[in-house]
Amino acid sequence: MAACYKCGEPFLEENDVPKDAVCKRCSSWVHACANCVHYDEYAHNKCREPKAAFVFDRLGKNECAFFKVKRVIKPDREQQKKLSPRAEQADREGRAREGLENLFKK
To answer: Which of 5, 8, 30 has the alpha carbon at shortest distance from 17?
Structure first.
């Protein structure tokens, strides 16, 4: 199942998404880098496809020939911004401490 990168609204997954398609809920472009499987915030040019042309507006409509709709496992869950490696480690440590505290509470 595919969902909007901005609001999480599921939409029908098609092999060829129309380039002018918009989300029904938030009116953001569906054919945008943020909805593509090749989009990676931390990759060079923010795209894992080496042959893709550089796109300035990653959230806007584009004409990329390598666009493929990204599948989302749980569109209901609010999409969270990726954390830096240090923030991820601190988050994991915090959750582990909470789990231990809950385990040993009387």
So the answer is: 30
* 36-79 pLDDT tens trace: 989 988 888 889 998 888 888 888 888 888 888 888 765 444 55
Domain map (residue ranges) of the chain: 1-81
d(CA 21, CA 74): 22
User: What residues contact residue 25 under an 8 Å CB cut-off, 6+ apart?
Assistant: 4, 7, 9
pTM of the entire structure? Answer: 0.61
Paired residues of 3 in beta bridges: 10
